[in-house]
Design goal:
Elements (H helix, E strand, L loop, with lengths): L4 H4 L4 E6 L3 E8 L11 E3 L2 E5 L3 E6 L5 E6 L4 E4 L2 E7 L5 E8 L7
Antiparallel strand pairs: 1-2, 2-9, 3-8, 4-7, 4-9, 5-6, 5-8
Length: 107
């Protein structure tokens, strides 16, 4: 179950657009902070748009880790999941997370 990122990490997340079809969050982190949340956390499926280069360390619930670098304006899809992501670079990281909302079902 994904947490509401804007509430769980309000100091880092800013809601930049929200309507009945999508939610767009801007996330900013300093070096050695979480890149998309604090500690181990969950997200719904979402599109990530990198606003500045980032070097990150991803840790999965089973303890598996990997490091990766994203260039400015990189765009990628993330399935729903749980992880911890740390900014291991030397600069702040910024990204947009675009969450597509499920259509409302007619009753």
């Amino acid at each position: 179950m994904a947490q509401d990122a804007a509430k769980a990490a309000a100091q880092n997340y800013k809601v930049v657009l929200e309507n009945d079809r999508a939610r767009v969050l801007e996330y900013t982190s300093k070096p050695h902070e979480g890149v998309c949340g604090v500690g181990m956390h969950s997200h719904p499926a979402h599109l990530t748009i990198v606003l500045g280069p980032a070097k990150v360390k991803v840790t999965l619930p089973d303890g598996t880790t990997r490091e990766s670098e994203s260039k400015r304006e990189s765009v990628f899809w993330n399935e729903a999941g749980t992880h911890s992501v740390e900014n291991v670079g030397t600069t702040n990281s910024r990204s947009l997370h675009v969450i597509i909302k499920e259509p409302k079902k007619d009753k």
